[in-house]
Amino acid sequence: MIMTTTPAISISGLSKSFATDGLDFVALQNANLQISPGEFVTLVGASGCGKSTLLRIVAGLEQASAGDVAVDAQPIQGPGIDRAMVFQHYSLYPWLTVLENIKFCRQLRVHRDVSTSADVEAAAGRADALIQLMGLSHVANAYPNQLSGGMQQRVAIARALMARPKILLMDEPFGALDAQTREVMHDLILHVSLLEKTTLLFVTHDVEEAIYLAHRVVLMAPRPGRIEAIHPVPLPDPRDQEMKQSPEFLRLKKDILDGIRATSGMQTQREWLERLGEASGASY
Ligand SMILES: Nc1ncnc2c1ncn2[C@@H]1O[C@H](COP(=O)(O)OP(=O)(O)OP(=O)(O)O)[C@@H](O)[C@H]1O
């Protein structure tokens, strides 16, 4: 892909090893990826291929063993307000209401120091707009444990968007939701990302979700964790649920699923299934 602007995220020669039992385990090896401003990129791949590790390094929550990550051409130095992260488990503050959870980041020191009264007013307006957009106005004063999983995740997303991050990092954010709620969330996050030109890096196990949301799907592979292939998604914006039935969509889904199967290390060949049958027969 030819970049004409400064990448929103630039990942070069990125590696990460963990010391386990005195041995170095390579979770990520020489990853290279340039993401344009406003681009939506999803990461898929077999379990343990380093998707979350890559995301956590970009978030500044984990340190790289080698290589560089830059945001807007600036090397990252830990977490920053230019990047917000949403996890699979909603991680809301149970003692705060929905509205208080969403406004919480405004009360952090980093924001308070730069806030004028106009900033505070604008923040209240943004919190209201996010609450409306996410369909949360009827529960604005409720506590997280009074909400369904889908609603809690909408609060977590609204909270992440509150500081108007340039980059949103999402680690299986819809993994615990039912299929219908996921579809609603997909269209919602696409809508917001187009509106605010947010750059998205999104981890998922769901290949359909990965294609529907993304401009590019990055296929990762394990042992060692690495980027195996990058698939551009040949669908226009805005997305429409019907596109999931298009031949381009189905072809890409098959290619990516084949890629995951080929790199997962799991065996489905007849020979191994037969051996399993023989072994079971012998033991029982
Ligand atoms: N803190 C850690 N210490 C040791 N090993 C780790 C640590 N974090 C991750 N790993 C290992 O690094 C590899 C990559 O982990 P990671 O969570 O990034 O994979 P993933 O692709 O997100 O997996 P999954 O799809 O199962 O969530 C795994 O083998 C994991 O066990």
Summary of the model, kept short:
This protein has 284 residues and is an alpha/beta fold. Helices cover 38% and strands 23% of the residues. The strands form two sheets. Strands 6-7-8-3-9-10 form a six-stranded mixed sheet, sandwiched between helices. A four-stranded antiparallel sheet has the order 2-1-4-5, with helices on one face.
Topology of helices and strands:
Layout: E1 9-20, E2 23-35, E3 40-45, H1 51-59, E4 66-71, E5 74-75, E6 83-86, H2 98-103, H3 109-112, H4 117-133, H5 149-162, E7 167-171, H6 179-196, E8 199-203, H7 207-213, E9 216-221, E10 226-232, H8 247-264, H9 270-283
Parallel strand pairs: 3-8, 3-9, 6-7, 7-8
Antiparallel strand pairs: 1-2, 1-4, 4-5, 9-10
Helix pairs in contact: 4-5, 7-8
Hetero ligands: adenosine-5'-triphosphate
Broad CATH class of one domain: Alpha Beta
**Superfamily at the CATH H level of one domain?**
P-loop containing nucleotide triphosphate hydrolases
If strands are numbered along the chain, what order do they take across the biggest sheet? 6-7-8-3-9-10
User: Which class of secondary structure composition applies to the elements?
Assistant: alpha/beta
Largest sheet properties: 6 strands, mixed
The SSE order reads: EEEHEEEHHHHEHEHEEHH
**Level-2 CATH architecture of one domain:** 3-Layer(aba) Sandwich
